[in-house]
Amino acid sequence: MRHARALWRLLRLIGHAASGLWTIRTRFPGWSQAQREQAVQAWAARLLTLTGIRLQTSGAPVAAGPVLLVANHISWLDIVVMHAAGYCRFVSKADVAHWPLIGSLATGAGTLYIERASRRDAMRVVHHMRDRLAAGDVVAIFPEGTTGDGRALLPFHANLVQAAISADAPVQPLALRFVDGTGATSFAPSFIGDETLVGSVWRTLAAEGLVAQVRYGAPQEHGGRDRRAWALALQGSVAQLRAELGHL
Fold this sequence. Notes:
The chain is of the alpha/beta class. The protein contains eight helices and seven strands, in the order ααββαβαβαβαβαβα. The protein has a single domain (2-244), classed as Glycerol-3-phosphate (1)-acyltransferase (3-Layer(aba) Sandwich). It has helices at 2-26, 33-50, 77-85, 102-108, 119-134, 162-167, 197-206, 227-244; strands spanning 54-58, 67-71, 89-93, 112-114, 138-141, 171-179, 211-216. The protein starts with a helix and ends with a helix. A seven-stranded mixed β-sheet has the order 1-7-6-2-5-3-4, sandwiched between helices. It is 44% helix and 15% strand.
């Protein structure tokens, strides 16, 4: 039954992704930015429904930008969950732009790409983020730089936090967690180490009763802190939010 359920969800997921790509290519060019953002959020929320995942949010997300969101990183599913909770413009590794189907969807959703190994490219992205924040956008990053095992936070990289300082924009920390039907932490959506994306997707689709939890913290101003000090403080805030979600 688990395999049959996963296969049925996979077929629906593929159809939903194809529908999203069609919308991006045929309707986005004629839509306003607000219409695009609403469509992305609705598409993400529908994807969670099709994969049997319930979204649970707590705390108060900011109503509008400019704001930089910082979150812990567990899975490929994190971006979908955060989009479903509220549209934001993600910063992602450049490889994603070239992934079949996923890359086109990410680009259409307004993703900013970064070559992680290049310091020069990091500065380019910081400037681009600053400009988007100055324009009133909600921008989101995963300061850990990669997915973790969901048990502990990896150190936060500070480079991209500079964009909020340069734009004099607040940063809102948030925590992500996946739980099963009993309320215990679920590692089905995890995507770390030698795990494959296909395996992670299949485990997620086969799981029953998954809940994606998002807990928002209070927005913070830099208050004269440099990016390293602020990144360290934000790491503490995300850790506290994870604890409030009852993370094991």
